[in-house]
Amino acid sequence: MNNVDQADPREIQTLQMYLNEYGQQIEILTQQLSMIEQQRLEAAAAVETLRALQENGDATLLLPIGGGAHLRVKVLDAGHAIVNIGADVSVERASAEAVEYLEDRITELEALGKKVAGSVEQLQGQATEISRRLEAAYRGARQAQAGQSGSS
């Protein structure tokens, strides 16, 4: 008996493998999206702090030292900041230049975040389609089993 609707076990296994891979890719991209957002928030906080220091040069800040502890510190040079420009390289820049650099970085992070979110959305769509195909294959396999059980 040759049933056209009967699902090929290899196809079911392949679809399940693809679905698992898409799930893993979505999880990785979601983690990347979270890290991008964290970096964006940190850069935005740095911009806000630098702007506040430019307005009020003689300021006292809370400096986090870890473990939830902070120190009150006086800013010695509110006109300059040391900025990480990548690859563990930091340079001293005037505060206004540092703000501009950080704002550009925020823009880059937002664009990257949109790109990664688009990839997540695309993968979710593909995973949904594979889920539909997998469900149809399972239904076909159940119907084939029911048909064989009924004809025996």
From TrEMBL:
UniProt family annotation: Belongs to the prefoldin subunit alpha family. Belongs to the prefoldin alpha subunit family.
Protein keywords: Chaperone, Coiled coil, Cytoplasm
Native organism: Methanoculleus thermophilus
InterPro entries: PFD_alpha_archaea, Prefoldin, Prefoldin_subunit_alpha
GO cellular component, one term: prefoldin complex
Name of protein: Prefoldin subunit alpha
CDD domains listed in its UniProt record: Prefoldin_alpha_GimC
Function: Molecular chaperone capable of stabilizing a range of proteins. Seems to fulfill an ATP-independent, HSP70-like function in archaeal de novo protein folding.
Domain of life according to the entry: Archaea
Subunit organization: Heterohexamer of two alpha and four beta subunits.
Example GO biological process: protein folding
